[in-house]
Fold this protein.
Amino acid sequence: PVFEPSNAARHATELYEIVAKTNKPYLLFLYTDGGPDHQVKFIKTQLALISLFLALDLNYLVAVRTPPGHSWKNPVERIMSILNLGLQCVSLMRQEMDVELEEIMLKCNSMNDIRKMAEKTPSLKEGLKQNLNSMITLLNDVFEQLQLKDENFKIFEDASELDIDILWNSMLQLDPTLTKDDRNWANIKNNPISNFFNHCCHSHSYFFSIKKCGKDDCEICLPIRSSQDIFNTLDHLPDPVPANNEHYKNFSDVYHMDTSESYCPSIQARKAKLDKYKKKQRRDKQMPWTGNAQRAIHATQIILDCHCNKSRCLYASKKITEDEKKILMAHLDTVCYTCGTTFSQNDNGFKMELEDDSLEESSRK
Ligand SMILES: [Zn+2]
Ligand SMILES: [Zn+2]
């Protein structure tokens, strides 16, 4: 558990080991949460899925993630409630290791710390592995007694580094330049693998799909393994499209249609935020001046905004004297400050107003 971190390549390898033992399907549908080891937008995940696609010689693979905060929608997550039953009243303790190793462990506050330390002290890795073995056996025993619909849970061995490498290498026939450090599109967009991405893959916020083109003489993907009739009914997933009532259109109405992600709530929210930012920028331009570095030198004092409880910095367009500052401070005690207001100076002291070039508030925190 310590030295076998969850990542996309490990998940793909372990899934491969399970699926390869069955009578090799040609379609694979995955449903996961959006954690970093599953996040379908990440190139690392996409490459792991491509390696799985190639190794199993699939016709079509779709990986879909649940919306943020809704992993409960994923049926496999329900295993957690049963696993928790098995963990009721179980307390775990590992045995002690050598004094030196225990001393190293005292300094480690996270899995990452332990992994880093193990690089410096290889005996820590072996020591911990042996040390945790009895605990893992105990947990396996507990979990194997749990059931879902009268069927006992099965435990599978974690994939070895070698297994992970073998699955990864299935991609090298497509692109020998690929390395495990390739983690963003910029790394690979000029490499041969990008042809495969463009030819077979659809990458959306909530799903990633890989599909053969179906042509027998294709140089990028292999020939299909099912009948042409079945293959012809397959298409990349459509995006949700709103219907006139408050629902989305039925899947069957949009399948095979050319859709876009523009109705995705998070994309709309991001766009609205961007629009608001642009509008704000425009508004800032209309202000007499903006709080730039020059004026920041004259920053007079931090005051508390009464409406949104954030500290705002007041800037002055010209240097103000100590006396003027005192008058301003006195004035600030008498007013209820709101973001965006400015203060002007006249013979009677300071006056709060919105458009003036004597003193101004910058909306930066
Ligand atoms: Zn093809
Ligand atoms: Zn405010």
In short: Residues 122-144 form the longest helix (23 residues). The CA atoms of residues 328 and 334 lie 10 Å apart. The chain is about 40% helix and 15% strand. Confidence is low (pLDDT under 50) at residues 354-365.
